[in-house]
Amino acid sequence: MHERRPAPAPTSFPDAASLRVGIVHARWNTECIDALVKGAISSLEKAGVKSENIVIESVPGSFELPIATSRLIAASQIQASSNANDLMGSLIEATTGNAGTTGSDAKASKQSLDAVISIGVLIKGSTMHFEYISDSCCHGLMRVGLDTGVPVILGVLTALTEEQALERSGLGQSSKKHNHGEDWGTAAVEMATKTKTWA
Ligand code: DLZ
């Protein structure tokens, strides 16, 4: 039968331990969301990403995913550059004996996010809401990735029925069930690693 999952990544990613990955998830359809987030975390960790380097945030619904993803990336970049300044201040102090402009209490270095997985579950109802939210959410997430240069993994299920959503979250009775969150974790590691080497 035709396999509707990605072929495995061509290589393993030995540098995964140095990656920092964000997960932003919506809170609608929580049963599926919880399973998908768990699946993503488990494949990130299996690939070697450290649990302390996985940053998790939630938003009300999928419509909020693009803005949250964008702000999370921006905040991580600001934090990383302020940490770099603090560390530079400490180095100046250590080598010259003079207090650097930022003082000696440098925080532990935190790098900016190398990828974000944006997770939502949209289930078609009887109005046009589903179409509008799905469309704007997916376009918004694509835009965030292109505008920031940070890989954004599309972790949004657009299901026509609740059964479809459960099946793609690895839940329910279907023999075809598969947790797509696991694929998203692997995609995040691959894209984060590759785009870092293309810098
Ligand atoms: C309003 C709404 C509806 C009808 N359905 C879903 C859904 O299936 N999945 C989801 O993640 N969010 C849904 N939302 C909420 C919107 O995404 C959004 O949170 C609100 O419209 C507020 O902006």
From TrEMBL:
InterPro entries: LS, LS/RS, LS/RS_sf. It catalyses: (2S)-2-hydroxy-3-oxobutyl phosphate + 5-amino-6-(D-ribitylamino)uracil = 6,7-dimethyl-8-(1-D-ribityl)lumazine + phosphate + 2 H2O + H(+). It comes from the Eukaryota. Its EC number is 2.5.1.78. One of its GO terms (biological process) is riboflavin biosynthetic process. Pathway: Cofactor biosynthesis; riboflavin biosynthesis; riboflavin from 2-hydroxy-3-oxobutyl phosphate and 5-amino-6-(D-ribitylamino)uracil: step 1/2. It is an enzyme of class 2 (transferase). Keywords: Riboflavin biosynthesis, Transferase. GO terms for cellular component: mitochondrial intermembrane space; riboflavin synthase complex. Transmembrane segments: none annotated. Coiled coil: none annotated. GO terms for molecular function: 6,7-dimethyl-8-ribityllumazine synthase activity. Catalyzes the formation of 6,7-dimethyl-8-ribityllumazine by condensation of 5-amino-6-(D-ribitylamino)uracil with 3,4-dihydroxy-2-butanone 4-phosphate. This is the penultimate step in the biosynthesis of riboflavin. Belongs to the DMRL synthase family. This is 6,7-dimethyl-8-ribityllumazine synthase. It comes from Acaromyces ingoldii.
